[in-house]
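Quick one: structure for this chain?
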Amino acid sequence: MNNKRASSDAADRLHALVFETLIDEIKRCRNPGNDADGKPLPRQAVPPALIAQALKALKDNGIDQPGRAQALKDALDDALPNLEDVEEEHLND
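Got it. Here's what it folds into:
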C-alpha cells in the first residue's frame, strides 16, 4: 500500500468518525438516558452550534437536501397553513 492510499484510508476513517460523533451527540441530546434512580431524563434541546456543525458537514459533502430530509420538509410544508390564505382570511373578517 502506498502512502497516498494510506492517507486516503485514514482520512476516510476520520471523516466517518466525525459524522458518527455528530450523530451520537444529537442522539444523546434527544435521548439522554436515565438518572441514578433509573428514571428517564428529559430530552434536551440540541445546541444550535451542534446543528450548525452537522449542517455544515452535510453541505461540505454535497448533501444539501437528502431525500429523507426533503420528505420531512415537504410534510412540514403541508402541515403549515399557507400564510397568504391566512392573511386573506383575516383581511376579509
